Amino acid sequence: MTDSIADEVRRLRTVEQLTVGEIRARTGLGRNRVHELLRGVPPPERSRRPNAKDDLRAAAVELRAEGHSVDGIARQLGVAKSTAYQWVRHLPLAEGGAGAERRRAHAALMVEARWAAHREAREAARTAEHEHAAGLVGSLTDRDLLLLGAAVYWCEGTKSKPWRRDDRLQFVNSDPGLLALFLRFLEVCGIHRAVPSYRVSIHETADLDAAVTWWVRRLDLPVERFQRANLKKHRPATVRRNVGDDYRGCLVITVPRSRELYWRIEGMIAELFQSVERCEPELTASEA
Description:
By secondary structure, the chain is α+β, with helices and mostly antiparallel strands. The chain has helices at 2-14, 20-27, 31-37, 54-65, 70-77, 81-88, 97-137, 142-156, 176-188, 208-219, 259-278, and strands spanning 169-173, 197-203, 230-232, 250-255.
């Protein structure tokens, strides 16, 4: 009997969509008894009271479908973030579309804002270190240029090997600062810029004439001393970063009849190495 009453009450709710009051009038049961039998059964749509936020909820669903975040929905609708989340938590964000683009743009702006102050402080510290270091250099004497030039050549220049003797100076680099330092070293050694030969080594897809003109003007070199360029074959499969208008290849400086000067550099480097082993440190890096 009890099961049949429960089935009837549920039928009245689900099939006929009656309210609690209407079910009580039909069956004669008390309010608490009807509520107990209807536990878990939703009320009919017609009995639901209108909610003042129904329009906001619908707007939140639409905004979510367009790709807006919970924070964005809460700001636009003027509701709490927790409320906006409850309304749209069943609607995950799609990966693509305009909404995703907006989220990525917003994330990029947040990252930029977060790191802008850090970069500014880092650049200020970098500038201060540059200024401090520049004050330590001062003017260079001929002896300074001899030692610096010898050290630079030993790092970047062509050197003889026991299995391949080639006692001549050839310096290859793409850094105009290092090349200018090597040319000053040669001048201190009595070799004018009109003595060496010059050659540009560059990829065949680059503008060779523009590169030669740039090196001539940048280092004040005689254009008639430039030899045929060394063109590197283009390989489409290779991803190159040295491209664009500021790519001028490498400059090769070859000094003719420079065997004695090469031997002199060998001697200076050997003595430099021995002097480093003998000297006592006078200034630490932190004191500099």
